[in-house]
Amino acid sequence: MKKGTVTTIGIEDFKANSHIIDYVDDDFVVINSLENLPNSNDTVRLNCFLVIFCIEGCVQLEMNTKTYLLEANHMMICLPTAVLSHALISPKHKISIMGFSTRFLQRTVKMDKETWNTISYVYNNPVKYVEESDNLIFKLYTDLIIEKINQEPQLYYGKEIMQYLFSALFCEMIADLKMNVDHPAEAKKNEGRDEAGGLYL
């Protein structure tokens, strides 16, 4: 990604690139490469909720003018309106990216004090190390989602099934983040590295 005109991207923009994306519908997207982001060579502003999970290797990414380094088992949570740029990846890397539409967020998220506290926490601590126990839970969700994506033939209630699976994963993630808000000392151990000088290749 490079600096220049800031392009706003939402789920509808991913749909235009559906031929290189693992899954996309009106509310959700699953991709396995930063290069598959719409306008990936530009600075982009998100009109969606994006989760980037580093499985192997390293990813360096600038968000809201601050540089973050993701290593294995780290995830970055990008809130709507976040500005992403300057993505660098190690030669041997594996990532998973899931996006949730703002419409889905409005439908699902209860905007109370607890939620605002969680949003504030995520804004200030967007990178989180995923503990092995949490990683197992998230892997079960993502494996099931991928299994359903690849299922042939697609079920009659396929879209509804995907809605519930993505909703369950999202709520599980928010509940986990809420625990970090409630137990900040423990969460401090799991914060990601920021202002990285470069990738460890």
Précis, in short:
The chain has helices at 11-15, 102-108, 113-124, 132-150, 158-182, 184-188; strands at 7-9, 23-24, 28-31, 44-46, 48-56, 59-63, 66-70, 74-78, 83-89, 94-101, 127-129, 193-194. With 201 residues, the protein is α+β, with helices and mostly antiparallel strands.
Annotation, overall tally of beta strands = 12
Distance between the ends = 19 Å
Q: What spatial form do the alpha-carbon principal axes imply?
A: globular
- Kindly report the spatial arrangement of strands forming the biggest sheet: 1-4-9-6-7-12
Please provide a written account of the structure.
The chain has 201 residues and is α+β, with helices and mostly antiparallel strands. The model is unreliable at 195-201 (pLDDT under 50). Helix 4 packs antiparallel against helix 5. The chain has six helices and twelve strands.
